[in-house]
Amino acid sequence: MTLAKVSASDGNKATLQQAxxxxxxxxxxxxxxxxxxxxxxxxxxxxPLRGKEAVRQWMKTAYREPPExxxxxxxxEGDFVVALGEIMVKGEDGRAARHAYCDVWRFRDGRMAQLxxxxxxxxx
Length: 124
Hints:
By secondary structure, the chain is an alpha+beta fold.
């Protein structure tokens, strides 16, 4: 692996960490500033979202309150970053629900361009 790829991979990991920190702070616009205009966002089992506006609208309903992230592992190579962890999100009823997730991000020109998200609610 070349040093340039290591630098880009590390930069992409840092970008994802900064973007997620904006979500936790309740700042979806801060998160979106790290995304490309034509971001493709696919959560397996849901309809895909295309573009910042679609992601913005989704966040308004999915993140009524800022979620809590626990990232257990970040793996980066080239233009991809894989994040494994847990997320706590409050539903419409106000109850928090824990979910395990694996997000596969593709970066383009230092910005998040594509997400494939695998999210499950673990058994009690």
